[in-house]
Structure formats: C-alpha cells, structure tokens
Amino acid sequence: MSLILALVLTFVLAAMAPRLHGLLREASGWVLALWPLAWTIYLGGLTGRITQGDPLYIRYPWMPQLGVSLSFYVDGLGLLFGLLISGIGALVLIYSGGYLKKHRHLGRFYLFILSFMGSMLGLVLTGNLIALFVFWELTSLSSYFLIGFEHEREEARQAALQALLVTGIGGLALLAGLLLLGEAGGTLELTVLLERGEALRASPYYLPALILILVGAFTKSAQVPFHFWLPNAMEAPTPVSAYLHSATMVKAGVYLLARLSPALGGTAAWQIGVTGGGLATMVLGAIMALGPSDLKRILAYSTVSTLGALTFLLGLGTPLAVKAAMTLLLAHALYKGALFLVAGAVDHETGTRDVWKLGGLGPSMPITATAAGMAALSMAGLPPSLGFISKELLYEAQLHALHLPALLAGAGVLASALLVAVAGVVGLRPFFGHPVHRTGHLHDPPPSLWLGPLLLGGAGIALAIAPDMAASPLTTAAVSAVLGKPTVVELRLWHGLNPSLALSALTVLAGAGLYAAQPFLLDIAARARLKEWAARWGPQRGYERMLQGLNALATTQTRLLQSGFLRFYLMIIILTTIALVGSTIAIREPLSRWMGRIVDARPYELMIVVLMGLATLMAVLTSSRLAAVAALGIVGYGVALLYMLFGAPDLAMTQFAVETLTVILLVLVVYRLPRFTRLSGRPARLRDAALALAAGGMMTALMLMVLSAPLKSRLAPFFAANSLTLAKGRNVVNVILVDFRALDTLGEITVLAVAAIGVYALLKLRME
Amino acid sequence: MRDLLLVLPLLIPLSTAVIGLLFWSRPHLQRALATVGAGLLLASGLGLLVSVRHGGIHTVQVGAWPAPFGITLAADLFSAIMVVLTGLIGLAAVLYSLGSMDAHRERFGYYPLVHILLLGVCGAFLTGDIFNLYVWFEVMLISSFVLMALGGERAQLEGAIKYVTLNLMSSALFLAAVGVLYGIAGTLNMADLSKTLRATPRPDLVLAPAMLLLVAFGIKAAIFPLFFWLPASYHTPPVAVSALFAGLLTKVGVYAMIRVFTLLFDHHAHSAHLIILVASGLTMVTGVLGAVAQNELRRILSFHIISQIGYMIMGLGLFTPISLAGSIFYIAHHIIVKTNLFLISGLVFQLQGSYQLKRLGGLYRKHPGLAALFLTPALSLAGMPPLSGFWAKLILVKAGLELQQYLIVAVSLMVSLLTLFSMLKIWNEAFWKAAPAEHSASLSRGTQLALFLPVLGLAAITLWIGLMPEPLFSLSEQAAQQLVDPTEYIRRTLGE
Predict the structure, then answer these.
(1) Cis status of the peptide bond prior to B386, with omega within 30 of 0
(2) With a CB-CB cutoff of 8 Å, which residues 354-383 of chain B face chain A?
(3) Facing A715 at nearest CB: one of B69, B169, B211
(4) More confident: B41 or A619
(5) B chain contacts of residue A570, beta-carbon cutoff 8 Å
(6) Is A768's pLDDT higher than 60?
(7) Residue in B143, B149, B162 closest to A762 by CB
(8) What is the spatial distance between Cα A571 and Cα B177, in angstroms, rounded to a whole number?
(9) Tell me: the pLDDT tens digits for A135-171?
(10) Taking CB atoms and an 8 Å cutoff, what residues of chain B touch A557?
(11) Of A564, A699, A747, the CB nearest to B176
(12) Which CATH number fits domain A578-711: 3.30.70, 1.20.58, 1.20.120, 3.30.1370?
C-alpha cells in the first residue's frame, strides 16, 4: 500500500510543484528534494529483506480482463535502480534549484522532473508488462518536455521531438513485443513470466517478441544506430542531462534487458543481437566521444559507449558478465551524474562548455575540481574507484567469454582506453594547465551546485574503498535478480595479479597516449572529412530524410485524394460502389437469367421505358436548360406511369404532383440562368458516360436479381387486414404514414421544418 | 418507466427544439432552454444506460403496433452508451456556444437546430427499424446541413454544398439497400431482418445490400475512399458546430455499420469483414497523412477524425467479442477527445485570432492551463499512456495479435506514432514557439466560464477513463457480447 501511495504522491507533488515553488522561492529545490530523500530511505529500508531473497510483490487490478494490473515487484534489480533514481533525484533537485534559480519556468521544471522521477520509479518497480510500458512512455514524454524546456529555441524543440520520435518508435515496437510475450507466456505478470523462461524461448512468438523488445530497449538506451538522439538531447538544461540522459532514463533499456534476461536470455538470437549491438555501441560511442568540443556532447557520447558496454555484458549473460554489468551500472550513474553536474557548474560560472576554451579552473574552483577529479578517476577506471572495480570485472567477463574472448577483450580495452582519454578531457583539462579563461573573478558555485557532484563523485570512491558497506550487498541483490538465482558478489579493489590487471595497466597507458594525441587525431579526422561523411551517411541524416519523405508523401497523397473537386469525389464514390456491389452480382448471376425476365415485359411497359431512355439521353445531350428540365420531367412522368401500371395509384398521383412542381420550380430558376456551356472535353464526357452506364447497369442488375426471388412479406397482408379494423382508416397507404409508421412521418416533417428554416436563414442571414 | 426511459432521449430534444422554435425571436430564452434540454438529455441517457445494464435490452413498440409491423425502438448497451455520449457532447457544445455563438446565428434558430440534430442522432441510436434509421439519417443530414450553412459565409456554403451532395449520395445508396433488403426479406424491422436473413433460401443475394450499406455508412463514417466530404467541410462552420459534428456525425455512421454488420450480416459476410479490415487500415493511414500535410488547426483535427475512424472499424473488421469491445471503447474515448480538441482550437482562436499554425505561438508561456488542457486530449488521441486512447488502442492491438493479424496491428501502431507527430506539431507551433505577434484578447468572466467549463469537463473524463479504464471496458465488453450474440435483442424486439 505504501508503495502505490508513494508513487501517486510523487505525481501529486509534481502537479503541485509550480505552486510550491511560488511559495518557497529560493528554498524550493532543497524542500522538494526531501521527497526523493524519503524515497531513498524507504527503499533503503527494504534492502534487508530483499538481500535475504524476499522480494516485495503487491498487485492491484487495473484492467483485469486484459491481464493488466498495477503490480509492484521489488527485487534486487528494482532496488538498485530505485535507489539510484531517488538518490540522484534528490541531489538533482537541489542542484536545479540553484542552476535555474532565475528561470521563469523553474516551477514547471520541477513539475516535469518530478513526473519523470515518478515514472522512472514506476518503471523499475512495477511487476506487470503493460504497467511497465505505461511508465516507459511516461519517461519518454517527460524527457520530451525537459529537452524542450528552453522551448523558444528551435534547436531545443527539434531535439525534443527527435528524442520522442526515436524512443516512440521503439516504444511501439516494445508494446507489440511485450504483448507477444504475454501471448507466449499466457500472462503479463513479470513474476510468472520469469519462471516460464523455457516455455517462452520455445514459443514461436519468441523471435518476433525478442526483436521487437530489443528495438524498444535499443532506442531508449541509445544503442547504435539509434544513438543519435542522445547527443542532441543535450539541449536540455544540464541537471536533466545528468539525471535523465546519463544516470537513469537511458538505462531503462538496460534495465529491461536485465529484467527479462532470465526469461529471454541465453539463446543464440539473444547473444548475437544484444552482445553484438552492445559491442558496436561501446566502441563507436567511445570513438565519437573524442570528437566534439562541447563538454556535454562529449559526456553524451561516452554515455552511449557505457550503455553499449552494459548491453554487451547483459548479452553475454554469464554470472561474471552480469556482475560486471551491475557494478558498472552503479559506477557509471555516480561518476557520469557528477561529471554532468560539474559541466553545468563550469558553464554556470564561466559561461562556456567548450573544452578548448577552458583551463586552469582548479585553483579558483577547488570544490568543483575535487568533485570532477574523483568522478574522472572512476570514469578512467583508476583505483581506488568503483569504475576501476567495474572495469576489472568487465575484462574478466570478456576474457572468460565462450566465444572470441580475445576480440572482446581487445574491443573492451580500446573502448576503455578511449574513455580514459575522455575522462582526461572532461575531468582534467578544464581544471589544470594554463588558465584560458579570465579566472580572476571566478569562484566555486553556491553549495546547491557543488553538493551534488561532490557527493556523487565521492560516493564513487567511498563505495570502492569500503565495498561491503553498500556496493557489495546491492550488487549481490541485483545480480541475483538478473541471474534468477542467489549469487554472492564480493567487490574488491585488489584482485591480485591477473590478466585483468595487466589489461588495466595497458588501458591507462593507451588512454594517456590518446589524450595527448587528441589534437593530432582530430586533425586527421578533419582531413579525412569524417564529419562531413557522418553528416551525409549517418543515422541523423536518415532521420531527417525520413521526416522529409513523410511530409512529401503526406502532401502528395492529400493533394491527389482531397483534390477539392466535387465531381472527382463523386466519381470515386460511384466507382467504389460499382466495385463492391458489382462484384457480388457478377460473381453469382449468369446473364441469361435476367434476359429472360426482360422478355417477360408487356409491350406498353417497354414503350414507356424506351421513352424514358430517350428523355434521359436528351437531358444529357441538349444544350438548353429548359429542354433538359422538360426531359427530366418526362422521365419522372414515366416512373409515375409505371407506378400506375403496377397497381400503386396513390404513389403515381404523388409522383405526378412532385414532378410537375419540380419542373415548374426549375423552369422559374432556369429562366434566369445563362445557357449551358460545355466545360469538360470529349474524353471526360466519355469517361462520365461510361461511369454512369456502369452504375445504372449495376443497379438494374441488382433489381433484377432481387426480383428473381419471390417476395414473401407478412407486412402487406397485416396492413391490409388491420387498416380499417384497428386503425380506422380505409386508405392503407395513409394509415401506414400516420399510424403504423407514424414515427417515420414525424421525422420527415422535422426534415421539412428544418429545410424551411434553412431556406429562410440562407435568404435572410448574410454574415459577410 | 422503462418505456419512458427509452423514449425520453427523443422526446427531450424534440420538445426543446419545438419550444425553442415557438420563441423564435427570444434568443435568451432559447439559450436557457437549450442548456437545460441538453442537460436533461444527458441525464435521461444515463438513466437509460443504468436501466439497460440492470434490466437488459429495452424495447418500445411505437403506437403499440406489434413488431415487425410497426416501428420498434430498441436500446441495448451499445445504443445506451451512444445516447449518453450524445447527451454529453450536446451539453458541451451548447455550453460552449453560450460563450462563443454570434447573435446573428442565435436569431436564426441555432439552438433549436442543434437539438434537432441531437434528436436525429439519438433516433439513429435507438431505432430498431432500418427504414426508420434512414429517416433519422435524413433528420441529421438536413439539420447538420443547415447548421453548416447558417451564416452564409462563402467558405461555409462551399463546404456545405460538398457536404450535402456527397451525403445525399449516401442516402440514395442507403435507400436502395433498404429497398433491396425489403425485396429479399419482406421486412424492415432489424431484428426480424436478422432472423429472416439467417434463414433465407437465397443467401447469395444478401451480400449485395450488405455492400450497398457498407458504402452508404462508409460515406457517413468517412472511411477510405469515401471521406472527401469531411475535410472539405468541417473547418468552415463556427467551432461549436464543428465540435458537435466532429464528436457525433461520423460516429453515427460507425454505429450503423457496426449494427448492421453484427445484427444483419454476420453470417453471410466474411468477405465484408475482410473488406472492412482493409478499409480500416487504409483509413488510418490516409487520414493521418492528410493531417500531417495540414497547417491549419481545424483541418489537422478533421483529418484525424478520419484516421481514428479506421481504428473504430478495425474492431468490426476483426470481429471478435474483444475487438468489438475495443471498437466501442474507442468510440467513447474518441468522441470525448475529438470534441474537446475542436473546442480547444476555438479557445486558441479566441485568444490569438487565427487557426493557422504559423500565426500562432507562445500559448505555453502565457496560458499554461490551456496548454495542459490541450495536452490531455491531444496525447490521448495519440494513444499516450495512461490516457483513454492508450487503452482503446491496447484493446484493439491485443485483439489483432490474438487473431494473428499482424499487418493491421503494425499499421495501427505506426499510425499512432504519426498521430503523436501531428499533435506535437500543433504543440510545437502553437504552444512552444514564441508568439509571432502580440495578440491579446480578453474574455469576460461569463464567457470564460462557458468556454472553459466544457473543455475542463471533457478533459477530466479523458483523464478519468485513462486512470480507471476498467468500468468503461466492462461496459464495452457487455455491449459487445450483446452484439455478438443478438438472440436477446431479437427476442425482446419481436416480443417473443
């Protein structure tokens, strides 16, 4: 109960945040941070029971007929994520209060970021696939509003849209995949599905479900080639980049893979898809991180690389790999969050994020520099940091992989070495060396801006020095959850002299080399016109092409279909009718059967019909309106005569009256109009004639077909029998109109009344 | 009492209209009357729904002539749900009109016309007789035509001509189909028709009128490739009228289609259901692409109606109990959301004086409340969870997957992304972008109340359905059950 209440309250708090900000002003960030802090304490309190293998499971029905429930399933994996989300969330709220202090819409910022926090917590704590999807989309949506926070800037709006569309495509694939998984497993409840792994993997739905789910996870976690939205998302205010786009939201895909790996993992398809995608992302992300000069974009690409590493490890799926993944997850959230916040603080103080324009800030911003240094240590994987432990584990997992261990380790070293260089670029270069910027008046930012980075950076060191306090139990619980069996993880800084350590040493050396050689490498890249090449062939370009294509397609299609010409619309409707109705007749009825019925007709009946045909022809061909009206009158009179011949004298009388009146009215109108002018050419007229003949032919055939079956109706005898006795009227037709089917008449009277109002209004009321 | 509940949804709008017409030159009285009438209609609809849910299908033999000789009114759950929605949308549109309708139109019978339209719509939902259905269609057509043309602006008349011509085409085909059905079965009562058609010695004849009705109702419902009248006309009348039309008119076509293809043609027309499914996919795609190509608020919204109709008939095309429940859920969700979006476009117009995206901007900054009110139905339309549209799509997608109809499922998912794209285009241009020119309109307190109250109410319902979809879905499921198995409907209608 407390869990769902806490979640609901998070959203309520989000909705109230703008108001609260109005009341609290300066202190708003600090006060609002109390809520995620409470979450952290609450989740921390669950650690005991969860590490003892007793996950929390609560279920509330939501849409039971579809198997949708709002259930919560908190095991080690959810706990680890939940603690990261709430803990970093508290720091980010404090930071935002300082960072956006003067921003007009800080209140709305709180709204969006708290909504995100609620959604993200829901995502990692829920135990139902559809509920998971709901929260998944909500995180995308809140990310949209946060990326576009500076909404009057075109770039921010475009980046927000791009992020939402890319993750949106993935989201839809994910929904389909999750539903297929539900079909295969017979339930949408995670706890049950996780136990049915074997049956799921044997199901025919397995492969399509897996592919769809991977598309969802890969778009969200920015795997190549969907990664391009993440660097663009750096348009968001820095606390958002730190929180959503490095520490938490982008890890939702990783979370999903980890969550479902007991059910879906271990197959060849999983190995190839997840491991391969992750590996490519890990290497490419790290390479691309060396390119940009904007601190945030550099960090974004390095985030892509780490997300790749996490995906890769979950693809391997061995206990060692999962252990490495969970440790790396924790380490990365801490150091990357810290580095982003540092970047924001530097930007805040100096007004630039360009690494080539920064330098020597250390002496004037000692606290920020300390935080940056600690985080960079972890990012570079140097002892004594959590990053070091996780890198050692990564190497160990790669060296013990079943297939191609040498290749995997090589890729790992390459990516890690690149990240060492990147850590130097973002963690060292701005703070050491020559002061590029005028540093005289520079100083550390206010506490709200250094508290977060310092705590996060410090945690990356402290957790590594004393791993048994928090890091080991948390990863133990998470690894056990991912592997689906109790597993003990003991994190140690010192692993003895082993191949991993050797690789680590190699990595640091190579990284230092890369750092020194960066200007040279950039020069080569510039000469090879790498940037132009990427702009031309990269996925970003593909995205733009797709949008252009979509707009072009939409415009063309709409111009073709919605042309604005009434005659064209009518033509399509008639053609559709002929196609649909005609096909049902043509298939079933041999032509000869109808011909026989035509021969049955009496000569004077045929004469009337021929006359009507001629009159129709005349109406079509004549160039005089008067003649056309008269010809139509002849057709009408012909119909009336036929009514007469077939025993419906009252109908015939009505028809005569209507026809006469119509002709008179038309003549009155026509009198004032000019002669016909022929607007359409010969081909158009032939086309229209063919269409008209086909439509007429179809209706004729239909009528003949219906008449071929004898009409047996109970209605006519009933009306005839009861008209006088019960309804007290001799004229059966009239009795039908005013009694048996009086409701129809009421309707028709209404129609006439409204028509009268319409005519009156059209004549009298002119708005222009 | 049961009989009265069934007749009230016709009696209330009819008497409201008639009394209103008697006070032709007293617009103030008409305004009060129209509001009360719409409120009563909603209340009577709710009463009917509750009564039908507990007491089963209601029928009334009009004039006490036994079925199938007279006209039977019948309300099953589907009908009752539709009547409730009619009352709701009628009330919203009337309230909104109080704050936005110009005095000229009010003096020319605007409010009585609205109520006659509501009469036609309710009549269509409640009749159990196929010719009577045709009559109600005519009532709807003429009143909507006059409402559309009322005011006589050039664009209005141009739209209205296309509207009425193409809809008369639909009427002609409908009438032809009724004639053919009578020729085959000798009856007009739909329950009786259902029975007779099931036992007809010439089942091969039934498909032709089925196709005629598919085209006739397809035009009304604005499916591909018959939708031309809708984008040609919906953006021309005052926004309250557009909103009323957008909510109700096409849905009467969808209702009629669902009714005849469950009650009359379920046995004979497997190919018809396949055709409907194909049409549903094409309707979704062409509609949403049409919306993507537009840059005017009301035109964007109009094309989205078409696209959404595709989803509603997708459930009919799949033809399982759950998919039909999905269709009904979708209709309910859509009517509320779409009317609201049109009303909001009117609010935007009131504030900034344009419907053109390039002339709008800055609403997010200046009117955060309106921004929130827009987002609720807009995101719901796009199927963003956990709003009503998400559940509506989820039900249909699940139904499609169960039948392994992957193509239509894929199409429906892609179209929802394009819908999101299109809604965000509005958001981007009208709300986020900086205002191109300062335009400040101030609305009086009373006007504000009349304009915002219906928008707020409808948004609240959307949110409520989103957070608690279960009640509406159970209701839809029960309604679908009655459609799939029409024995009770037939029994009660024929009084056996």
Answers:
(1) yes
(2) 364-365, 368, 379
(3) B69
(4) B41
(5) 165-166, 169
(6) no
(7) B149
(8) 20
(9) 999 999 999 999 999 999 999 999 999 999 999 999 9
(10) 286, 289-290, 293
(11) A699
(12) 1.20.120
- Please list every residue in chain A whose beta carbon sits closer than 8 Å to the beta carbon of residue B207: 584
DSSP string for residues in A410-472: HHHHHHHHHHHHHHIIIIITTTSSS--S--TT--PPPHHHHHHHHHHHHHHHHHHHSTTTTHH
Sorted by sequence, the CB contacts under 8 Å of residue A560 that are 6+ apart come out as none
Contacts of A399 (CB under 8 A, 6+ apart): A405, A408, A409, A499, A500
**Residue of higher predicted confidence among A717 and A670:** A717
Cα distance between residue A205 and residue A213, in whole Å: 12
DSSP A249: G
CB contact (8 A) between residue A755 and residue B188: no
How many whole angstroms separate alpha carbon A675 and alpha carbon B64?
Answer: 55
Which of B69, B306, B94 lies closest to B189 in space, CA to CA? B69
Q: Which residues of B147-159 are buried (b: 16+ CB within 10 A; e: fewer)?
A: bbbbbbbeebebb
Distance from CA of A31 to the nearest CA of B (A): 24
Q: What ipTM does this complex have?
A: 0.95
pLDDT tops 70 at residue A92? yes
Which residues of chain B carry a pLDDT beneath 70?
267-269, 439-440, 496
> Which phi and psi (to 5°) does residue A71 adopt?
-105, 155
pLDDT given at position A437: 59
Cβ pair A172:B428 closer than 8 A: no
Nearest by Cα to B110 from B160, B156, B147, B154: B147
Q: Are strands A68-74 and A56-63 parallel, antiparallel or unpaired?
A: antiparallel
SS (HEC) of A187-239: CCEHHHHHHCHHHHHHCCCHHHHHHHHHHHHHHHCCCCCCCCHHHHHHHCCHH
The pLDDT value given to residue A359: 87
Tell me which chain B residues have a C-beta less than 8 angstroms from the C-beta of A577: 173, 211-212, 215
Residue numbers of the domain that contains B332: 2-494
Taking alpha carbons only, the member of B406, B389, B262, B254 closest to residue B321 is B262
Output the CA–CA distances (angstroms, integers) from residue A505 to A90, A177, A402, A519, B125, in the order listed: 36, 43, 24, 23, 78
- Residue A148 to residue A145: CA distance in whole angstroms: 5
Per the structure block, which two tokens stand in for B61? 């033999």
**Average pLDDT of span A235-242:** 95
Of B152, B211, B428, the CB nearest to A762: B152
Write out pLDDT tens, residues A317-327: 999 999 999 99
Q: Is residue A766 over pLDDT 90?
A: no
Residue with tokens 């800084």: A493
pLDDT of residue B496: 67
Q: Which one, of A438, A331, A428, lies nearest residue A384 by Cα?
A: A331
Nearest beta carbon to residue B205 from set A557, A562, A706: A706
Asked if B173 reaches chain A (Cβ–Cβ under 8 Å), the answer is: yes
pLDDT at A237 over 70: yes
pLDDT digit string, tens, across residues A707-761:
877 777 888 899 999 999 998 988 888 899 999 999 999 999 999 999 999 999 8
Structure tokens at A341: 């916040």
Tell me, what DSSP letter sits at residue A131?
Answer: H
Q: Which of residues 168-187 of A touch B (CB under 8 A)?
A: 168-169, 172, 175-176, 179-180, 183
| pLDDT of amino acid A318 | 93
Residue of higher predicted confidence among A496 and A313: A313
Task: Say how many C-beta atoms besides its own lie within 10 A of residue A401's C-beta.
Answer: 18
Report the C-alpha gap between A443 and A350 in whole angstroms.
Answer: 10
